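### Sample
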Amino acid sequence: MERGQGRAGRQGKRRARHHRLSDPLTIRGRFKNMERSRNQHAPAVKHRRKGIYVLPSLFTTASLFAGFYAIVQAMNGNFEHSALAIFIAMVLDALDGRVARLTHTESDFGGQYDSLVDMVSFGLAPALIMYEWALSGLGKLGWLAAFIYVAGAGLRLARFNVQVGSADKRFFIGLSSPSAALLVVGFIWVLHASGVPGRDISLLALAVTILAGVLMVSNIRYRSFKDLDLRGRIPFVSILAVPLAFVLFFLDPPQVLFLVFLGYALSGPFAAVLKFLRPARDKQPERVAKP
């Protein structure tokens, strides 16, 4: 009897304590209800996995090797090989993210590793190649221009990392580091293949290097083409444009690559100027012709 009364007493105390915690009139009850409501209405956060996945990391490591190989070839004076290696690094960099998404192996490690590799392949490597080819004869001005490019790439990658998940995926803010790298090495590839020594156009090379570095840290928007749906219906003209682009590329790879990435680099400022002029044009009063 006493044992049953003791058990009933403990259950009564437990119910009373639960009533006090859930009672909205008590302070502890208010905090408990607020916490419960916050948990119910909190948005579901998608956490990326923290493991190391071999397949996408192999593509990223191959991109790192291509950047390292480009630096070594530039030190040996093989600038065409350096430019081709940077182009291969860009292709591998584009593939590693897609492989990770297709195989559902995206991870925080992969994102951080990819940024570090991009800093080497698209930050350090193009600046060192340009310095070896044209800027070394300018002394301090030459390595300062190369450093501006490296700093621009580092800042661009850091800004991209903090904007992941919050920025509009249709656009890049600032010229992407792979595009800036292809602009620089494409410039080198075209002129070196034409027999033009870098020392003879060192000032033009200086301007291209600084321009690429500044565009990376600018607030100019560039199309990312991530919203391009290749599985949907596309115009018939686009189907013809793809093989035509391949034919042009294999006819003269250096010139085609440089012109493509030069056009892309200039498309951002051109679109920004048009956007700036359009409101001013709309605000002008309409002129009515005199009868």
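Residues 16-45 form one domain. This sample (CDP-diacylglycerol--serine O-phosphatidyltransferase) is used throughout the tutorial notebook.
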